[in-house]
Amino acid sequence: MKTLTYRFFSAVRICTGDLTIKQRLAKAWIDYLDEIEPNDLPQCQRPKFIELRENMYERQPLNEESAPQASIRKMSARQVVSQTGLIIEIYAELVRIQNSPTLAVAEVNTNSRSNIVTSLEDEMLRHLN
User: Which entry of 4, 25, 52, 56 is 20 to 30 Å from 75 by CA?
Assistant: First the structure.
């Protein structure tokens, strides 16, 4: 669990770096998240991660690019912000699970998005415009 949390923490750090938003998402995914298997995550986080993975492999790559690079290249700013939001959501849940010894993984509500993440997405979009 700590390794997963570290990978997501590292991805979140890249997502807040100084590259373009698409470059940050591509680097975060390729460097830290692409190798994660959905079954390595707690059950409550698998659907979000599977959604993220599907979005990263949605497009066919051109000559020297990867499928994630092609997929991100074709995303709108709103879609990139949404995918970044999923990374942040998963990271926040991993931290919460890791730091709560009494939290049963099966009890985590996987259908609700935190207000913080939604607000973050809105703020990121405002900043991009």
Answer: 4
